[in-house]
Design brief:
About 85% of the residues lie in helices and about 0% in strands. It is mostly helical. Helix 3 (about 55-90) runs antiparallel to helix 8 (about 165-200) and helix 9 runs antiparallel to helix 10.
Length: about 260
Amino acid sequence: MRGRKQLKPLLRKALGIGFGVFLLLLWQLIAVAIGKSFILPKPVEVLGHIIENENELFMVHLPATMQVVAVGGLLAVILGFLLATAMDWDHRLEKALYPLLTVTQTIPTICIAPVFVLWFGYTVKMRIIVVVLVNFFSVTVNVFDGFRATSAGRMELMQTYGAGRLQQFLLLRLPTALPSFFTALRIAVPWSVVGATVAEWLGAPDGLGTYSRSCMMNLDAAGLLAPLLILTGCALILNGLLKWIEKRVITWQGEA
């Protein structure tokens, strides 16, 4: 039985790697069938472009994008967590703010981002604000739903033992919401990358989105796809790191 449990994670990893290889082979076959690298380059051509331009990609553009992803994503997580906590603490705030949060998500980011360009110019601040806007709602809603998932029976038991509201929050509601918090983090990682790239496409002196747009203007399909592969790899690494941290923080998950 123990051996089977140990094999399951390995099997899942093998299936994930196998599916990734399958996608690469499918991409290769489609590219060969089309036969026009300016429409769809082969994976080897994209990899060659990355190797040929590694200094520019990894020393100039990638750090610029990841700076925006890190700062914007962190601010979105902090603000979303604080707002979710406030709404859980005072339900009047929930009734007042939840509809406004929903309204903010009806406006496409690609439409509101040019407004930030007018206000802040092609600056790092503008790109960070776009990333925060993209992530803020999902973080707030996930954490708030985590708070609401707290067992009413356990709340009553703590009240019976004389636990105050702050003790109930710290010892029960917060631990209950932690899985939802990590889910919010895993959602925030790819969306931070998307937000940063969209902002760079609108105009920025550096960043992988800027590099990709420049390659598109030059009809360089391999250069257009190269940043996408790099950003996908970064997002996978960050999500893997978050899963590793989650397993060590939420040690009680899966217990009865």
